[in-house]
Amino acid sequence: WSTFLLRKLLTNTEFKNSFINRFADLLNTTMKDENVVAVIDSIQDKLQPEMQEHIDRWRRPVNMNEWMDNVNRMRTFAMQRTNYQRQHIQSFFSLAGQYDVSLSVNEQQMGSVRINTIKSITAFPWTGIYFKGIPVEIQALPNPGYRFTHWSGTNTSSDETLLLNPGNNISLRAHFEVNPDFAGDELNPPAFDLTKGHYTFTYWDEYQPEDSFPPHMLFLQSSTHDPLLSDDMTHRYHVPLNEYHADDETFAGYPYKLSNRTRINGLGEEGISFINTGRGRDLGAAVLAIDTRGVEARDITLEWTGGTITPNARVYAIRLQYKIGPEGVFKDFRDENGNIIEYKRSEIAGHEQTFGPLLLPEDATNQEYVQLRWKYYFTGEFLPLDHGRRDMLRLDDIRINNLVLNAGNVIKKSNSPILFQNYPNPTQGSTSISFALPHRAHLEISLFDAIGKKRLTLVKGSYNSGTHTLELNLEMLEPGLYFYRMTVGDFYDTKRIVLLN
Fold first, then answer.
1. Distance CA 376, CA 227 (A)
2. Running DSSP on this structure, what letter comes out for residue 423?
3. pLDDT per residue over 297-327, tens digit each?
4. N or C: which end of the chain has fewer CB within 10 A?
């Protein structure tokens, strides 16, 4: 019974391939023999000064030589384990063998490479071992101010993302060049061309080094305490070496890993968080630049999630704003009813709210450079018994959806349906759900409760291509967690709704 679920999942080809690739990714990174040995060495260094006293007191192990033999046995195990694991995977899944993947870039400062779930490889040359018959996905990731041009080596494609299933060793080099358009500056990242598709920000690693940012994004801060909405952002996120707290000294150069003082933390799949402590360099904002030329307003939608990690006495919020051109002036982003788009901190830790799909403002369309800004700012509100601590808020799941994709000179609709997150979420009953279809199709959207019981059929019928919105009233349902699922032929997608009292 304990392996039943995994055994059944492994009968699904997509899951099986993902499982094997994730296993290979870990063996090539975290569980690589030299990494495990390094952990053993670090623990030995900490324990060794105390071991003789431990032996004198407890007489186990009998002497230091025996203890060292045990440690060396662990090292030997670590150095041999990865090869055994690979042989086990190969045998269990009846795979044809293994092959080496070698990755590099033409200029290291210009970009990085992703392979499967290894989000961003920045140290080159890089080599990993993968399994024959299991496709791998490799993506070139240009840094702000640069663009990808082509691959060289085993594959000479100009596609940023490659899905490969090689039978032998492969060697790839990603080539980048300076973006001939606006290449960005201290406060303005280069723009993402929406004619290439969708933009997403859903992950940021805590071990990203100093002066690293997501593609086409920057994180900014001020030169003051508790900046208000009207206060300027003066420079990129940076923690001076003399500003690292004593508890964080070992993380110097990794400002997304810190646990004290004003900081942005990388939360992995949860995005990023902001927290201020009154350091004279308080946060802040996340800014994203996009090029909207060639895409009509009705075909660009925006979604994002705000959340409260820790509520405190000084109240903060995250407001969405935008400007036209690098030198433009920020304006509040408003929905179709003129409402300001802003995440207001919650008194409940762990609360989150998803915004969108929102249409881009009319004056932000057909523009070479549009910047979106999520500004984390002090509202000026103090709760009783103010102890000086600020709200820690989260930003995640930024998605700019282009519902029309370019293919050469031919405009074509996205070839997959899209189900958007409801808005507002959480909701007290009244909410809206949007979906987009590439062509006329019959669909069904149903609502399920947290245990999977179908509660409502929200819509069932045929709809023309384009974006559609349903206005719903769910007040008849009890508060709690629900899921809604859209089914269009063989396609289906699921989102969640939190219904409040």
1. 9
2. B
3. 777 889 899 999 999 999 999 999 999 988 8
4. N
